[in-house]
Specification:
By secondary structure, the chain is of the alpha/beta class. The chain has one domain: TIM Barrel (Alpha-Beta Barrel). It has eleven helices and ten strands. It has helices spanning about 15-30, 35, 45-50, 80-90, 115-125, 145-150, 170, 175-190, 210-220, 245-260, 280; strands at about 30-35, 55, 60, 70, 95-100, 130-135, 155-160, 195-200, 225-230, 265. Helix 9 links the parallel strand 8 (about 195-200) and strand 9. The longest helix is centred in the middle third of the chain and has 14 residues, at about 115-125. The protein is globular and about 45 Å long. The chain starts with 16 loop residues before the first helix and ends in a 6-residue tail after the last helix.
Length: about 290
Protein backbone atom coordinates (compact mmCIF):
# COMPACT_ATOMS: atom_id res chain seq x y z
CA UNK A 1 0.00 0.00 0.00
CA UNK A 2 1.39 3.45 -0.92
CA UNK A 3 2.38 5.39 2.18
CA UNK A 4 3.71 8.67 0.86
CA UNK A 5 2.08 11.05 -1.55
CA UNK A 6 3.95 11.41 -4.82
CA UNK A 7 5.38 14.81 -5.69
CA UNK A 8 2.51 15.74 -7.99
CA UNK A 9 0.09 15.70 -5.03
CA UNK A 10 1.88 18.36 -3.00
CA UNK A 11 -0.13 21.55 -2.41
CA UNK A 12 0.51 24.93 -0.79
CA UNK A 13 -0.58 25.53 2.78
CA UNK A 14 -3.61 27.86 2.89
CA UNK A 15 -2.60 31.50 3.18
CA UNK A 16 -3.14 34.89 1.58
CA UNK A 17 -5.32 37.92 2.09
CA UNK A 18 -8.16 36.74 -0.11
CA UNK A 19 -8.09 33.28 1.46
CA UNK A 20 -8.53 34.87 4.89
CA UNK A 21 -11.33 37.11 3.58
CA UNK A 22 -13.32 34.15 2.26
CA UNK A 23 -12.75 32.13 5.43
CA UNK A 24 -13.82 35.07 7.60
CA UNK A 25 -16.98 35.59 5.54
CA UNK A 26 -17.94 31.94 5.96
CA UNK A 27 -17.52 32.24 9.73
CA UNK A 28 -19.37 35.55 9.83
CA UNK A 29 -22.36 34.10 7.99
CA UNK A 30 -22.40 30.90 10.04
CA UNK A 31 -22.00 28.77 6.92
CA UNK A 32 -20.25 25.54 6.03
CA UNK A 33 -18.21 24.70 2.95
CA UNK A 34 -17.33 21.29 1.60
CA UNK A 35 -13.89 22.78 0.98
CA UNK A 36 -13.26 22.84 4.73
CA UNK A 37 -15.38 19.90 5.94
CA UNK A 38 -14.02 17.48 3.34
CA UNK A 39 -10.44 18.82 3.61
CA UNK A 40 -10.23 19.61 -0.10
CA UNK A 41 -6.61 19.94 -1.30
CA UNK A 42 -7.60 22.87 -3.53
CA UNK A 43 -8.88 25.12 -0.75
CA UNK A 44 -5.91 27.51 -0.97
CA UNK A 45 -6.32 27.99 -4.71
CA UNK A 46 -10.09 28.32 -4.68
CA UNK A 47 -10.40 30.63 -1.66
CA UNK A 48 -7.71 32.84 -3.19
CA UNK A 49 -9.81 32.98 -6.34
CA UNK A 50 -12.68 34.15 -4.13
CA UNK A 51 -14.80 31.03 -4.65
CA UNK A 52 -16.13 28.34 -2.33
CA UNK A 53 -18.59 25.47 -2.49
CA UNK A 54 -21.30 26.15 0.07
CA UNK A 55 -22.59 23.16 2.02
CA UNK A 56 -26.15 23.49 3.27
CA UNK A 57 -28.18 21.48 5.79
CA UNK A 58 -25.41 21.48 8.38
CA UNK A 59 -22.14 19.58 8.46
CA UNK A 60 -23.28 16.27 9.98
CA UNK A 61 -24.16 13.56 7.46
CA UNK A 62 -26.64 10.73 8.01
CA UNK A 63 -24.49 8.39 5.93
CA UNK A 64 -21.05 7.02 6.64
CA UNK A 65 -19.24 6.64 3.33
CA UNK A 66 -15.80 5.20 3.94
CA UNK A 67 -13.95 7.72 1.79
CA UNK A 68 -15.45 10.93 3.15
CA UNK A 69 -14.10 13.19 5.89
CA UNK A 70 -17.47 14.81 6.69
CA UNK A 71 -18.69 13.78 10.14
CA UNK A 72 -21.50 11.24 10.42
CA UNK A 73 -24.11 11.24 13.15
CA UNK A 74 -27.29 12.98 14.27
CA UNK A 75 -27.77 16.02 12.02
CA UNK A 76 -28.74 19.55 12.93
CA UNK A 77 -32.23 20.98 12.53
CA UNK A 78 -32.87 22.62 9.16
CA UNK A 79 -32.11 26.35 9.39
CA UNK A 80 -34.77 28.37 7.52
CA UNK A 81 -32.44 31.39 7.32
CA UNK A 82 -29.56 29.48 5.76
CA UNK A 83 -30.57 30.10 2.11
CA UNK A 84 -30.50 33.86 2.69
CA UNK A 85 -27.06 33.74 4.30
CA UNK A 86 -25.69 31.71 1.39
CA UNK A 87 -27.16 34.19 -1.09
CA UNK A 88 -25.68 37.10 0.84
CA UNK A 89 -22.25 35.44 0.82
CA UNK A 90 -22.54 34.93 -2.95
CA UNK A 91 -23.27 38.63 -3.32
CA UNK A 92 -20.39 39.70 -1.07
CA UNK A 93 -18.01 37.52 -3.08
CA UNK A 94 -19.47 38.96 -6.32
CA UNK A 95 -19.84 35.50 -7.81
CA UNK A 96 -21.26 35.02 -11.28
CA UNK A 97 -21.26 31.24 -10.78
CA UNK A 98 -22.03 29.59 -7.46
CA UNK A 99 -21.91 25.98 -6.32
CA UNK A 100 -24.06 24.55 -3.53
CA UNK A 101 -23.91 21.06 -2.08
CA UNK A 102 -25.09 19.37 1.11
CA UNK A 103 -24.59 16.49 3.45
CA UNK A 104 -26.96 13.56 2.94
CA UNK A 105 -30.11 14.05 5.02
CA UNK A 106 -31.92 10.72 5.02
CA UNK A 107 -33.70 11.87 8.18
CA UNK A 108 -35.76 14.40 6.20
CA UNK A 109 -38.84 13.27 4.22
CA UNK A 110 -37.56 14.97 1.05
CA UNK A 111 -33.87 14.42 1.72
CA UNK A 112 -33.31 18.18 1.95
CA UNK A 113 -34.68 19.00 -1.52
CA UNK A 114 -36.78 21.93 -0.27
CA UNK A 115 -33.72 23.59 1.26
CA UNK A 116 -31.87 23.20 -2.05
CA UNK A 117 -34.81 24.76 -3.89
CA UNK A 118 -35.03 27.69 -1.49
CA UNK A 119 -31.28 28.27 -1.70
CA UNK A 120 -31.25 28.31 -5.51
CA UNK A 121 -34.24 30.67 -5.58
CA UNK A 122 -32.75 33.06 -3.03
CA UNK A 123 -29.32 33.15 -4.71
CA UNK A 124 -30.99 34.10 -7.99
CA UNK A 125 -33.17 36.76 -6.35
CA UNK A 126 -30.24 38.46 -4.63
CA UNK A 127 -27.77 37.91 -7.46
CA UNK A 128 -29.45 38.44 -10.84
CA UNK A 129 -27.43 36.76 -13.57
CA UNK A 130 -25.60 34.42 -11.20
CA UNK A 131 -25.71 30.83 -12.42
CA UNK A 132 -26.15 28.07 -9.83
CA UNK A 133 -24.73 24.56 -9.86
CA UNK A 134 -25.99 22.11 -7.24
CA UNK A 135 -24.25 18.93 -6.13
CA UNK A 136 -27.12 16.88 -4.73
CA UNK A 137 -27.44 13.61 -2.82
CA UNK A 138 -29.51 10.79 -4.31
CA UNK A 139 -32.67 11.66 -2.31
CA UNK A 140 -33.11 7.85 -1.98
CA UNK A 141 -34.30 7.87 -5.57
CA UNK A 142 -37.30 10.14 -4.96
CA UNK A 143 -38.48 11.77 -8.18
CA UNK A 144 -40.62 14.19 -6.16
CA UNK A 145 -37.58 15.48 -4.32
CA UNK A 146 -35.64 15.85 -7.54
CA UNK A 147 -38.52 17.79 -9.11
CA UNK A 148 -38.41 20.32 -6.25
CA UNK A 149 -34.82 21.15 -7.16
CA UNK A 150 -35.43 21.15 -10.90
CA UNK A 151 -38.30 23.62 -10.55
CA UNK A 152 -35.76 26.30 -9.65
CA UNK A 153 -33.81 25.66 -12.86
CA UNK A 154 -30.18 25.43 -11.72
CA UNK A 155 -27.62 25.62 -14.51
CA UNK A 156 -26.11 22.24 -13.60
CA UNK A 157 -27.30 19.26 -11.58
CA UNK A 158 -24.27 17.40 -10.26
CA UNK A 159 -24.46 14.01 -8.57
CA UNK A 160 -21.29 12.00 -8.07
CA UNK A 161 -21.21 8.26 -8.62
CA UNK A 162 -17.81 8.45 -6.84
CA UNK A 163 -16.56 4.95 -7.63
CA UNK A 164 -17.06 1.90 -9.83
CA UNK A 165 -20.05 -0.40 -9.45
CA UNK A 166 -18.16 -3.31 -7.83
CA UNK A 167 -16.82 -1.16 -4.97
CA UNK A 168 -20.13 0.41 -3.89
CA UNK A 169 -20.78 -2.04 -1.00
CA UNK A 170 -17.34 -1.14 0.40
CA UNK A 171 -17.05 2.55 -0.44
CA UNK A 172 -20.69 3.71 -0.36
CA UNK A 173 -22.65 1.04 1.57
CA UNK A 174 -25.77 3.25 1.95
CA UNK A 175 -25.85 4.25 -1.72
CA UNK A 176 -26.58 2.39 -4.94
CA UNK A 177 -24.72 2.66 -8.25
CA UNK A 178 -27.79 2.24 -10.44
CA UNK A 179 -29.87 4.59 -8.29
CA UNK A 180 -27.29 7.32 -8.82
CA UNK A 181 -27.27 6.74 -12.58
CA UNK A 182 -31.06 6.76 -12.58
CA UNK A 183 -31.18 10.14 -10.83
CA UNK A 184 -28.99 11.72 -13.51
CA UNK A 185 -31.08 10.08 -16.22
CA UNK A 186 -34.26 11.48 -14.64
CA UNK A 187 -32.86 15.01 -14.83
CA UNK A 188 -32.53 14.74 -18.60
CA UNK A 189 -35.95 13.14 -18.88
CA UNK A 190 -37.69 15.86 -16.83
CA UNK A 191 -35.76 18.98 -17.96
CA UNK A 192 -33.57 18.14 -20.98
CA UNK A 193 -31.83 21.52 -21.16
CA UNK A 194 -30.36 21.31 -17.64
CA UNK A 195 -26.75 20.11 -17.78
CA UNK A 196 -25.82 17.03 -15.78
CA UNK A 197 -22.48 16.34 -14.18
CA UNK A 198 -20.86 13.56 -12.20
CA UNK A 199 -17.54 12.72 -10.60
CA UNK A 200 -15.29 9.73 -10.03
CA UNK A 201 -12.48 9.06 -7.56
CA UNK A 202 -9.74 6.64 -8.53
CA UNK A 203 -7.24 4.81 -6.37
CA UNK A 204 -9.68 2.80 -4.23
CA UNK A 205 -8.79 -0.57 -5.73
CA UNK A 206 -10.76 -0.42 -8.96
CA UNK A 207 -9.46 -1.94 -12.17
CA UNK A 208 -8.68 0.49 -14.99
CA UNK A 209 -11.27 -1.20 -17.21
CA UNK A 210 -13.89 -0.61 -14.50
CA UNK A 211 -13.20 3.14 -14.63
CA UNK A 212 -13.73 3.07 -18.39
CA UNK A 213 -16.99 1.16 -17.85
CA UNK A 214 -18.22 3.76 -15.33
CA UNK A 215 -17.42 6.55 -17.80
CA UNK A 216 -19.38 4.72 -20.48
CA UNK A 217 -22.29 4.16 -18.07
CA UNK A 218 -22.47 7.90 -17.38
CA UNK A 219 -22.37 8.79 -21.05
CA UNK A 220 -25.09 6.23 -21.76
CA UNK A 221 -27.49 8.30 -19.65
CA UNK A 222 -26.40 11.49 -21.46
CA UNK A 223 -24.27 13.03 -18.71
CA UNK A 224 -22.61 16.23 -19.98
CA UNK A 225 -19.70 17.00 -17.62
CA UNK A 226 -17.30 14.68 -15.81
CA UNK A 227 -14.66 15.14 -13.12
CA UNK A 228 -12.02 12.51 -12.27
CA UNK A 229 -9.65 12.87 -9.34
CA UNK A 230 -7.33 10.94 -7.04
CA UNK A 231 -8.76 9.52 -3.82
CA UNK A 232 -6.76 10.66 -0.79
CA UNK A 233 -7.21 8.97 2.58
CA UNK A 234 -8.50 11.62 5.05
CA UNK A 235 -7.49 9.61 8.15
CA UNK A 236 -6.34 6.15 9.18
CA UNK A 237 -10.00 5.25 9.88
CA UNK A 238 -10.88 5.72 6.21
CA UNK A 239 -10.23 3.40 3.30
CA UNK A 240 -6.57 3.23 2.29
CA UNK A 241 -5.25 4.42 -1.05
CA UNK A 242 -4.57 1.38 -3.22
CA UNK A 243 -2.95 3.28 -6.09
CA UNK A 244 -1.74 6.76 -6.96
CA UNK A 245 -2.58 7.44 -10.59
CA UNK A 246 0.08 9.28 -12.59
CA UNK A 247 -0.94 12.60 -14.21
CA UNK A 248 -0.55 10.95 -17.61
CA UNK A 249 -3.14 8.34 -16.65
CA UNK A 250 -5.58 11.13 -15.86
CA UNK A 251 -4.94 12.64 -19.28
CA UNK A 252 -5.60 9.24 -20.85
CA UNK A 253 -8.90 8.99 -18.97
CA UNK A 254 -9.81 12.52 -20.04
CA UNK A 255 -9.17 11.68 -23.68
CA UNK A 256 -11.27 8.54 -23.38
CA UNK A 257 -14.17 10.45 -21.78
CA UNK A 258 -14.07 13.18 -24.42
CA UNK A 259 -13.99 10.54 -27.16
CA UNK A 260 -16.97 8.87 -25.49
CA UNK A 261 -18.90 12.11 -25.94
CA UNK A 262 -18.64 14.23 -22.79
CA UNK A 263 -18.79 17.95 -23.50
CA UNK A 264 -16.33 18.84 -20.73
CA UNK A 265 -13.93 16.80 -18.61
CA UNK A 266 -11.73 17.88 -15.69
CA UNK A 267 -9.25 15.13 -14.82
CA UNK A 268 -6.16 15.26 -12.64
CA UNK A 269 -4.71 14.17 -9.30
CA UNK A 270 -6.20 17.11 -7.38
CA UNK A 271 -9.45 17.49 -9.31
CA UNK A 272 -12.56 17.46 -7.16
CA UNK A 273 -16.22 17.65 -8.10
CA UNK A 274 -16.52 21.44 -7.92
CA UNK A 275 -12.99 22.27 -9.05
CA UNK A 276 -13.08 24.97 -11.75
CA UNK A 277 -16.84 24.40 -11.97
CA UNK A 278 -17.34 27.61 -13.94
CA UNK A 279 -14.70 26.86 -16.59
CA UNK A 280 -17.06 25.38 -19.20
CA UNK A 281 -18.97 28.66 -19.19
CA UNK A 282 -15.99 31.00 -18.97
CA UNK A 283 -14.43 29.18 -21.94
CA UNK A 284 -17.46 28.52 -24.14
CA UNK A 285 -15.35 27.90 -27.23
CA UNK A 286 -14.24 24.65 -25.60
CA UNK A 287 -17.73 23.62 -24.50
CA UNK A 288 -19.59 21.81 -27.24
Amino acid sequence: MPRRHPDWLKVKLPSGERYMKVRSLIVEKGLHTVCQSARCPNIEECFNRGVATFMILGNICTRNCRFCNIASGEPEAVDPKEPLRVAQAVRQLALSYSVVTSVSRDDLPDGGAEQFARTIKTIKELNPGCEVEVLIPDFKGSEGSLKKVLEQRPKVINHNIETVRRLYPIVRPQADYHRSLSLLKQVKSLVPNILTKSGLMVGLGEEYEEVLEAIEDLKAIDCDILTIGQYLQPSKEHLPVKKYYHPQEFQDLKRFALKTGFSWVEAGPLVRSSYHADRPFREPADFA
